[in-house]
Each structure stands twice: as structure tokens, then as C-alpha cells.
Amino acid sequence: MNKHILPGLATLSIIALTVTACGTADPTADAAGTGEATQKVSVGVTPIAINAPIFLGKEKGFFDEVGIDLNIQTSVGGAAAIPAVVSGSYHFADSNPISLMIAREKGLDIKFVTADGAPTKISGTDTSGVVVPSDSPIQSAADLAGKTVAVNTLANIGDTTIRHLVEEDGGDQTAIKFVEVAFPDAEAAISNKQVDAAWVVEPFLTKAVKNGARVVSYNFVDFDPNLAIDGYFATGDMIRNEPELVEKFQSAINKSMEYAEANPEEVRDIVGTYTAIDAELREEMILNSFPTTFDRDSMQKLGEAALKYGTLTQAPDLDELLP
Q: Which residues form the SsuA/THI5-like domain (predicted)?
């Protein structure tokens, strides 16, 4: 069977609302012998498995082909990347949709330019799940009501999707106590009984299951199998003032994602070049699907859930958020 993460938004500095957006990409000499100027482009990327396509595309020369000299900068996630994009440190960066919805609600002019990763679309397996100890009495999403559940960031995509699934399963989502625990520490937190359950993503999900944990809900694929859970974004100024560069980036990253979708073993290999995941775990971990577009219905559903559960205070404008 073909096996197929996401920090939330930290408090944004008021300075980020007033700094200039990313300036023109620096031109250099020649783009792969075409006579066209190459543009140096910095992209903030969280070094996790879902972002394998951009590393693979760089290795395969897809960015060189369109005249982009790609400089991948390690980011700790969308929350940190958003101020970096707004301030001009990055031209583009990756983020989950909730973080961008929150940022736009705070007045930041940012927008997705392409999707990046989605669930497996296969019921009963995914790259994201809520795990419990093997002997836990928790058997379903509804059973999470009244329990302490670890998520990597409060009021973001993890707890929003979990609240929805608990309520859908007949449980009281208001009775869940969410606490912040980083993904690498989540397995120990459930083993030590610090929490009753924990949300984890790959490769931590496969590792936890191998060590005896049990999945009670695959929160992304169960929420909506068509939900794009990550994407690359830029400032509105960048999109308006440098449309040709944005189109080149879209072309290269979309080609990278199509290649990754068709070549899962190369995805596993490239992950080993920018993470510390060993070969055995890379071979066993579940891989995301890699769509090049956002499914609007699932994004609408996510925005409505975020509003309902207090993650947002107003419904997101998808026309302003999506490409």
C-alpha cells in the first residue's frame, strides 16, 4: 500500500503591521543558460516531512528551470514565518491555514499562493492522529471529553479539528482540557500520564504507534480528506508588485509537488537530507498527499469550525486568503 505539522500563530508584533513587505528578488547572472536573469528567492520552510516537495524540487532543478535561485531557510513553523514574510526576511513561507486566518484577522495582508500538503484521503490512516496509551479506556473521539489532550499549539488547527470530531461523535468538546506539548515530547507525556491523549504528526505518529500507542482519531482525514493542511504564502504587496516571480514560484513548487506525489520513495530519501529521521522510520512513516490547489469546501468548513470554537472571531474571507 502506498504510504502517504503545524505550529500555530504566536502573538504578532505590532511592528509587523507597519514594516514593508518583501522587496524585489535580487537578480544575478544567467538562469540555466537561458540568458534571463536569475532571481535569488528566500523561502521559510518548516523542516518536516510534509515539506519534502520543495527540497526535492530544488534537487531536481525545477526552480533553476524558471530562473529562481532558491534559498531555503529553516523556519520553526507558520507562526514564526508570518512576521518574517511581512518584514521581508522571506519572499515566501509555508504555514497551515488556521495560522493565516488568524494573521489576516489581525490585519496582516498575506495570502496563499499554492497548497502544499493534505491528508492521505484514506480512511483509517493518515499523517496526523490523536494517540493514547494502549491500555487507555479512551476508545473514540467522543471519549476525549473530560480528558486532558496535548496539542503543539493552542487555538490552532490541531485543537480546532479535534473539537469538531469530538462534537460530531457525540461528545462535549467544551469539556476537553487542551495543553501545549511539543510534538517530540508528546509520546512521553502520554506514557508518563501527564496527559490522557496527544495529537502528533509524522514521524512522531508512526514512532508512537510502534512503541505501543493507539490511535483514536486521525483528526485531519476524519475532519475532511480534501483539506489542504499546509501551503506557501506571500504578502499582498509581493503578489501585486511581482506577479511574474509569484507565477514562477507557483510553477516550480507545483511541479515539485506533482513529482513528489508520483515518486514516494524519493520523498522518503530527501526527508533524510534535512531531518534526523533515520532510514527505518522514513520507510515506515505515512506520507501526505501533495495537491497543488486548495479545496474550497473543506477550507470553508475549517473556517466555520475555527469561528465556532473561538479560534477566530469572524469568518475568514476565502477570496482574500486563497490563490
A: 52-266
Q: Is the pLDDT of residue 35 over 80?
A: no
Is residue 38 within 8 A of residue 61, CB to CB? The reply is no
Q: Which three cell numbers stand for residue 31?
A: 538562469
**CATH architecture classification, 128-223:** 3-Layer(aba) Sandwich (3.40)
Cα–Cα dist 164/160, whole Å: 6
> What is the Cα–Cα distance from 200 to 24, expressed in whole angstroms?
38
Domain ranges (residues) in the chain: 14-118+226-321, 128-223
d(CA 50, CA 317): 26
Answer whether 14-118+226-321 and 128-223 agree in fold: yes
Distance (Å, whole) CA 254 – CA 288? 15
Greatest C-alpha distance within the chain: 66
**Residue 202 CA: distances (Å) to CA of 36, 50, 147, 183:** 40, 9, 23, 9
What count of Cα atoms within 13 Å lies in the side-chain half-sphere of residue 4?
20
Class of domain 14-118+226-321: alpha beta
Coil, helix or strand at residue 179: strand
pLDDT average, residue stretch 101-121: 95
Q: Which amino acid is at 158?
A: G
| pLDDT tens figures, 160-206 | 999 999 999 999 999 999 999 999 899 999 999 999 999 999 999 99
DSSP three-state, residue 239: helix
> What is residue 232's DSSP assignment?
E
Q: Are strands 128-132 and 197-201 parallel, antiparallel or unpaired?
A: antiparallel
Which residues, in sequence order, are bridge partners of residue 111?
A: 234
pLDDT of residue 69: 98
Confidence of residue 30 (pLDDT cuts 50, 70, 90): low
pTM for the full predicted model: 0.87
